[in-house]
Design goal:
By secondary structure, this protein is of the alpha/beta class. The protein contains ten helices and 15 strands. It folds into two domains: about 150 residues, Alpha-Beta Complex (Quinone Oxidoreductase, Chain A, domain 1), CATH 3.90.180; about 150 residues, NAD(P)-binding Rossmann-like Domain (Rossmann fold). Bound molecules: NADP nicotinamide-adenine-dinucleotide phosphate.
Amino acid sequence: MNETALAVHQTARPQGFPTADHFAFVESAIPDPPVGSALVRNLYWSVDPYHREMMDDLPGGFALDAPLEGRTIGQVVASRTPRLAEGEIVFHRQGWRTHAVVTPEKTRQLPRFDSVPLTAYLSILGGTGLTAYVGLTRVARLQEGEDLFVSAAAGGVGTATGRFARLLGAGRLVGCVGSASKADHLMREVGYDTVFDYHDGPVADLLGKAAPDGIDVFVDNVGGEQLAAAVGALREFGRIVRVGTISQYNTPNAPLPRFNYADIVEKSLRMEGFLVRNYLDLQEELYEFAVPYLQSGRLALDETVVDGFEHIVDAFLGMLHGQNTGKIIVRERTRVPS
Ligand SMILES: NC(=O)c1ccc[n+]([C@@H]2O[C@H](COP(=O)([O-])OP(=O)(O)OC[C@H]3O[C@@H](n4cnc5c(N)ncnc54)[C@H](OP(=O)(O)O)[C@@H]3O)[C@@H](O)[C@H]2O)c1
């Protein structure tokens, strides 16, 4: 058998948007797992906006010319530990490569729920869904009937936020996205009431038209102009859930839009950011909430699935340019259990 392993390395630090030239696919022999570990063949990979932040020369960032990290689901193909059986499906963080040597401590066995595909553990039941769930239930503390505005509403976190908000009894759902087709999709399929394209004018004007009576909660994946506009649109006791700042990841030196700081005081607003890794204890609660809805069909998956590990860099770059709808996931081409 001539199978070899492939891993993606970052080879240079980007200024602005990264390109394929900042990465290399590096081939090697398939590793032998030492005693106490197992060899996993990866099947599904998550590529995420935070990987763009890790490409910069910052503490905790990606090392150059070394395999990258990322969330992935794989199958144990050779084991030298009784705790990882051959054939078992596991979640771990040695993504961006076809094969990984893992230890039981650094892997998570995934619960299998009837009719729930494996991709869900990287989308609505994974870090993406958990981020949306934490944002709504713990940070915003969403109340029934409250009106919501979501930025990057057609992405992984944005679609999960919209679907969960509907199930939690939210009032009006307003989103902003980068294209008319994404806006149509969100209104037709995901349960948003009004969605606008942020390219169509000043965001404050577009939001003013979409939510003329204001909003109670803003779930912010973007920062910048969207955040400034939302501060103006929030009602008294409104909450801003700061999830991410994707408008800055590729243009860190762009001037930041201003907003009226007095609004925070006069309207008694609360702005709170969070990192999902500090809420992993809510994983089981997310399963309890979301799985019955998935099984009954009241909750659907929003995923853009790209076939073939050789397209993982393109998938990542495409996501940064808005080519995904829902969570972007890369899938091994052959022999993939679902
Ligand atoms: N706090 C946490 O623990 C946590 C966890 C997960 C994710 N996040 C953050 O949540 C956000 C969404 O993550 P995700 O994984 O769900 O990614 P995603 O939304 O699926 O993908 C990124 C989307 O961002 C939009 N975008 C890109 N550049 C933009 C810009 N300059 N202005 C406005 N929109 C832009 C694009 O959609 P358009 O076509 O609409 O522009 C793109 O599809 C990111 O900021 C990420 O860092 C935070």
